[in-house]
Design brief:
alpha+beta, 4-stranded mixed β-sheet, about 25% helix, DUF5983 domain-containing protein
Length: about 100
């Protein structure tokens, strides 16, 4: 039996630059410090939404925890944070680029 999963698609501007850099480091060094399972692509990240609100050893800003909590509330299993992704008015936008 197959399963269909939901994911939240967001623009990378929902993460401050420091968090985007931290996610790149976490993926590059085997996930150390990442809030959950995370894969990087050329334009962003695909992040698993954990079942609880804990984000482990994440030492970034609270922005990623807010994204994961929002995705969890929407019933999503993953978040695609992409350079060309849409803006979600329920989350802050960091206009740093």
């Amino acid at each position: 039996m197959s399963a269909v999963r939901r994911f939240l698609d967001l623009g990378s501007g929902h993460l401050p630059r420091v968090d985007r850099e931290r996610l790149d480091e976490a993926v590059r060094f085997g996930g150390l410090g990442a809030p959950s399972a995370c894969m990087a692509g050329p334009y962003g990240w695909f992040v698993h939404v954990p079942d609880d609100t804990a984000v482990g050893a994440w030492d970034g800003t609270p922005a990623l925890a807010a994204i994961l909590a929002h995705a969890r509330a929407l019933g999503c299993d993953h978040v695609l944070i992409d350079a060309d992704g849409p803006v979600d008015d329920a989350l802050p936008w960091f206009d740093e680029d």
